[in-house]
Amino acid sequence: MPIAQIFAKSGQDEYYGEPVTQLEHALQCAQLAEQAGADDETVVAAFLHDIGHLLPVESAEGYMDGYGTVDHERLGADFLRQRGYSEKIAQLIEHHVNAKRYLVFKHPEYRVRLSEASTKTLLFQGGPMTADEAAQFEKNPYFREILQVRGWDERAKEIDLPTPGIEHYLALCERVRR
Fold first, then answer.
1. Is pLDDT at 31 greater than 90 in this prediction?
2. What are phi and psi of 66, to 5 degrees?
3. C-alpha R_g of the chain
4. Do 84 and 34 form a contact (C-beta atoms < 8 A)?
């Protein structure tokens, strides 16, 4: 299924526990990446980081108690790999949840800044990393960019924030695709 069709079908769904839709969240996250001067692949990863929430799930166990799809980060990354997107894009998406787990471990005050929904999903996502997990995560070649995507993800929840339209980011997706 093309990305445009996925957003047409589910983009107006609530972004679990937040005051924006799935599409608004994606557009805001991509806009934050652009404003930060991120490269095109990172902007696309920011735009598509939660696409796994919009993909069909096979059973009720695939949901986090009303807060989206369990393992959405891996589902989204694999979906994009299968469609010719770069490993960098896939890695940024696949590890944005690990970034939350890492930041909660490394900076306990980070947990206090999480939204209620993000705090609840942390439990489904494995909780804070262990010291060993954090040390391994820090070795990821895209570590810095993964943390950036996480930061934009946390901020991309503003009501009625003007952003470029979906066409802008869909065109960018096509340009970066292998």
1. yes
2. 85, 5
3. 15
4. no
Q: How far apart are CA 9 and CA 25, in angstroms?
A: 15
Give the rounded percent of residues in the chain with a pLDDT score beyond 90: 70
Contact 16, 155 (CB under 8 A): no
Distance of CA 108 to CAs 102, 119, 132, Å?
A: 10, 12, 17
Give strand pairing partners of 21: 14
Give the distance from CA 1 to its chain's centroid: 19
pLDDT higher than 70, residue 85? yes
For residue 151, name the pLDDT band (cuts at 50, 70, 90). Answer: very high
Three-state DSSP class for residue 63: strand
User: How far is residue 111's CA from residue 173's CA, in Å, rounded to a whole number?
Assistant: 32
Number of domains in the chain: 1
CATH number for 117: 1.10.3210.10
- Residue 60 pLDDT > 60: no
> Which residue range(s) make up the domain with 47?
3-177
Integer Cα distance of 19 and 15 in angstroms:
7
**Contact call for residues 112 and 68 (beta carbons, < 8 A):** no
Contact (CB, 8 A) for 117 and 22:
no
pTM listed for this prediction: 0.91
Q: Are 70 and 62 in contact (CB under 8 A)?
A: yes
Contact 22, 11 (CB under 8 A): yes
